Amino acid sequence: MSMRLTDSHDEFSGPAVLVSGIEEVHKLMPGWFDSLVKELAAFGLGTAEITLEALLEADSTKLISSAPTLIVISEHTSDRQIGQLMDMLSESHSAALVLVDETQTKVRSFMQAEGILCEPMTTTPHDASLMLRTLAQRQPALHRLNTDLRLSEMTIHGVQSEVAKLHEELQSAASIQREYLPVGIPEIDGVDLGIIYRPASYVSGDIYDICQLDDNRSAFFIADAVGHGVPAALMTMVITQGLRKLDGSGTNSQVVEPAEALRRLNNTMASHTGKNARFATAMYAIYDKSTNEVTIAGAGHPPALVVRDTTGETEMIDSQGPLLGIFQDVEFEQTTVKLDPGDVLVFYSDGFEVAFPNTADDEHERKRPTLTYLTELSSAGTDSKNLDQSIRFLEDNLDLQMGSLHQPDDITALFIAPKSKRSAAINELVNDLSEQS
């Protein structure tokens, strides 16, 4: 693209020469400009004149042409105009040769500092033409680079906008998912509760629920949708809505046994499975405070732990059952366990299996499951009277693990201690965890 802002002096298209200042060249060096025109013509370059005011008002994005610009700054050019000129040349990346009086050493220094070719007016027409020819030869490549740069800037701006939009949508999704979780810790008469809930990202593939079913029975549910991110989080919505704890309503409602509740949930999920199967693990338990018994049914979930108060030993309660959402009309087993005062029942997601890596292993091996989590969970359940302190200690241990800032999987655990004194600090703990997540 040639810059032809006024009538051309000849048939060539060439550099735009500022008229303001050329008069000074004519006065100081008569014939200099005519010699330059001849030198440029020998290189196939012509000239076109433009005033400094018109150049400064031109669209800077259109100043990249097939020929460079020759600008003569006289002593009559104001500092403001010089500053505008420097800004324009820097923004447009246009090739220019600026000639200044030898006394304007500061202007020349400033120009050169900005990468602008600036020479004294004593430069010979031959040398000036060689500089302009060299600039002209590099102009097509510069034009392509400038075009690529603008396209890249537009692309980056578009990506940034999409990332900001995605960030906002994920925050909204996380907020919606939290609405499906219990607010704080529900008041369950005769039961002390503790919760650890740490999503690996904005949203979680883990979800839990705690509720009172009747005067004696309470329900505890934890599920882990296979996968991460938004798809797994959407699955948790389906799971929570598909779990039916009661048949009927009001005084005529009947408690649904854990095995039957999981069977119905599985049928609901399996009936809506598309080409891309989505499945989940889960553990559902009903605790009866009148008998201190808990009935547990599992669906491919890690076994529950019972930390005995009298012996300090940990029992694994593995209620076998298939994964949710794969096959319809499958049966689930349930197990009933007696909990003595001071015992602690622990449900957890499989994120704990990689939460405590072996620090001696390399980066690849640290991603493998370990059995350290069993000790950590059991330790948190050894003191039912100070359950909140034990859980906070477990939280501190999680924070100390390598990669805790970018944990590989969602982490969830429910601690249930029948007939132990409830500590108000547990609610503060859950509120802190909710704010952090």
Low-confidence stretches: 1-19, 420-427
Number of domains: 2
The count of strands amounts to 17
Question: Largest beta sheet, briefly?
Answer: 5 strands, parallel
How far apart lie the N and C ends?
A: 56 Å
SS class: alpha+beta
Query: What name does CATH use for the topology of the largest domain?
Result: Phosphatase 2c, domain 1
Q: How much helical structure, as a percent, in the residues?
A: 25-40%
Query: How do the strands of the widest beta sheet line up side by side?
Result: 2-1-3-4-5
As a percent range, the share of strand residues is 15-25%
The CATH superfamily name of the largest domain is PPM-type phosphatase domain
What's the gyration radius in Å?
A: 38 Å
What is the class of the largest domain in the CATH system? Alpha Beta
* CATH architecture assignment name of the largest domain: 4-Layer Sandwich
